[in-house]
Amino acid sequence: MKHTLLATTALVALTGAAAAEITISGTARIGVVTTEGAAAVAAGTVFGKGGAQTLGGHKLTTKEIASLDKFGAAAASTGVYDPGEYQSTTTAVTFAATTNAAQLTKLDALIANAKTLLLEQQNTASANVGQTAAEIAKISADLATMENLRGQVVAKEASAAVAKKADTTVGKNRVRIAFAGSGTTDGGLTYGFSARADHSNTSTGGSQYISGAFGKISMGDLNGGDEQLVGNLSGVGSSGAGSHQEFGYQSSDHNIGYSVSMAGVSFAATTDLVRGADSTKTGSNTAYGVKWSGDMGGATVGIALGTSKIGNVTEDSMSVGVSMGGLSIMACHTPTITVQRLLRLLKLLQVAQRSLLVLGQSLIKQNKQQWQTLILTQPV
Fold first, then answer.
1. pLDDT tens per residue, range 50-102
2. DSSP string for residues in 235-271
3. Under DSSP, is residue 246 helix (H, G, I), strand (E, B) or coil?
4. For the whole model, what pTM was predicted?
5. Residue 230 to residue 53: CA distance in whole angstroms
C-alpha cells in the first residue's frame, strides 16, 4: 500500500507539472522577388602598384620622358645630387617610350635617391641638400611624379572578362507553424517552451524556460544575451530585407541563459555549454546585455548595450529605439562601443522622438477636424 500511495503521489505531481496551456500559431507568405543584374565587364589591364606585376602598362609620352630625363641628369660629381636632379653618378639616365626592366630599374634608383635626399638633414659633400622649405617641397613634388609614372608603366595581371548578368525574378513562399506552451507550478514558478516547424523535413531547435521572482532561466536554441536586448531591425517587404536587417551576432549558438528585469532595467547573460565542454576550444564564451526602457514625453524609449567574447574575439553592440502610436524607429550599431558613438545614437533618438511627437500631434489634429466635420454634417 505504501508503494501504491507513493506512485499515486508521483503521478499527480507529474500530471500537474505537465499541464500547460499550449497554443499553435502559423504564418504564411507568398511573393515575387526581382534581383537586378549587372553589365558586362570587358577584359582589361589594371594599372598601379602592388600585387603580381608585369611590364607593359602605360607607354611614356614625350613630355613624361623629358621630365624623367631631367630627373636623371648627370651629377656634378659622384654621390652628389640636388633637388630636381636625382642621378648620383656622372652618367645621365635616359628613358624611352618602350618600357623594359632596365628602365624600370633606373626609375627605381631615382626614386630611392629622391627619398634619401628628402630625409637627409646634412650632407658634407654638397651644400644643396633639402634644408629649405622650397627645396623640400620641390623634392616631394618630383618624388610624387616619379612614383605616379612608375605605377602606370607597371601593370597588374590582366583582368578577365565578366559576362553580363540578367535580371532574375523568382517566386518566394514560406509557411511556419509555431508551438508554445506555458504554465505555473503549485509553488508559483512559471515555465514554458517554444518550437517552430518549417515546410521541410527538419525543424529548428526549440527552447524551454522556468521563471520566478529570481529571474528567468532558459535553455535550448537561444540568442546571445547581447542580441536578446540589443536586438535587430524589423524586416520589410515580402522576404524581410533579405535577412540583412539581422546582424550576425557571434553569440547566436548559445544554449543556456539567465535574464531578469526590474524597474525598467533588463539584464541577460548567456553561454554555450557544448562549446564549453569541447577541450579543443579556448578562450571565453559569454554574452551579456543590459537595456533600459521607459516613457519619455509620451513615447516609449529603449537604450541597450551588449557585449560578447567568443574565444579571443570581443564584439560590442548597442541600439536605441522609440515608439509612439504604432510607429517604431530603431537604430542598431555593432562596433566597439565608445562614448562618441553612444552620444550619436542618443542624438538620433532625440530626433526620432521629436519626429514622432510632431506626427502624433498632426494625427490628433486631423482626427479632431474629421470628428468636427462629421458632427456638423449630421441632420438634426
1. 444 445 566 778 888 888 888 888 877 776 666 778 887 788 888 877 656 77
2. P-STTTTTTTTS---TTTT--EEEEEEETTEEEEEEE
3. coil
4. 0.50
5. 47
